[in-house]
Amino acid sequence: MVDHGRDIAIEAVSHRFDLEGAPLPVLDDVSFDIEPGSFVALLGPSGCGKSTLLRLIAGLDHPAQGRIAVGGDTVGDPDPSRILVFQDPTLFPWRDVRANVALGLQAQGTLKTEGHRVDDAIRLVGLSGFDKAYPHQLSGGMAQRVALARALVNRPDVLLLDEPLGKLDSLTRMTMQAELVRLWQDSGLTAVLVTHDVEEALFLAQRVIVFGPRPARVVADLAVDLPYPRHRGDPRLAALRHQALGHLGLEASW
């Protein structure tokens, strides 16, 4: 898909929403860098501002203060080089798998010349043979694979994942976690995952940035220096889990 991802710089970013005329702070002076081609998880309590930061990186919103740059360029409007995948696959029910995956190329007017990329993306997510299936014929995990293929067909440099496995059952979620690692390794892009699942963050990412309650501030930056494939029973993961829970104020959960 791509040879490598792009670096991301978050520079003193603060953000707020207007709620019935009153400001609601959601991010407070957040700064960190993400290396190109790395897999980083943003971990924190539900509603702390992680998804807001992901939307800012995607260019769907603009920070009230500070700067976000990808590959050295300040993020402005959304761009196909930065693709955001949501928790809900949001597939068009009247389109089959292939037609759903082809949406980006169709919108860009390149489907006729670049149609092979649709087949490549479907194969990459393990759905070869299902290209004529419709969303109602797919399991939750398969539907999310289609959403990932729809993102990857654009050959993005940066893949932004907003709790994409949050609605899946536990067994499917574990399978898809391993698939996400494989997709990231095969594509070479920069992956940024938002989650409030400590185990998921540590299993997937090379680095876990921990946020406190809203307005989000970085409270820890944990390196997960473990090789892939990882094993959930690895005592080193257990030690990191204890450390992450401590930063989240949940030591008693251990």
Largest sheet: 6 strands, mixed
The separation of the N and C termini measures: 40 Å
**Beta-strand content:** 25-35%
Q: What's the alpha carbon Rg, rounded to whole Å?
A: 18 Å
Beta strands, count: 10
Average pLDDT rating: 90
Low-confidence region ranges: none
Structural class: alpha/beta
Q: Any idea how many domains?
A: 2
CATH architecture of the largest domain: 3-Layer(aba) Sandwich
Number of helices: 9
Order of helices and strands: EEEHEEEHHHHHEHEHEEH
Task: Please report the first level of CATH classification, the CATH class of the largest domain.
Answer: Alpha Beta
Descriptive terms for the model:
254 residues; alpha/beta; Rossmann fold; four-stranded antiparallel β-sheet; 9 helices; 10 strands; 25% strand
Overview of the structural elements:
This protein is of the alpha/beta class and 254 residues long. The protein folds into two domains: 1-81 and 160-254, Rossmann fold (3-Layer(aba) Sandwich); 85-155, no CATH class. 33% of the residues lie in helices and 25% in strands. The protein contains nine helices and ten strands. The protein has helices at residues 50-58, 97-101, 103-108, 111-114, 116-124, 140-152, 170-187, 198-204, 235-247, and strands at 8-19, 22-34, 39-43, 65-70, 73-74, 82-85, 158-162, 190-195, 207-211, 218-223. The strands form two sheets. A six-stranded mixed beta sheet has the order 6-7-8-3-9-10, sandwiched between helices. A four-stranded antiparallel beta sheet has the order 2-1-4-5, covered by helices on one side. α5 packs across α6 (140-152) and α8 packs across α9. It is globular, with a radius of gyration of 18 Å. The protein starts with 7 loop residues before the first strand and ends in a 7-residue tail after the last helix.
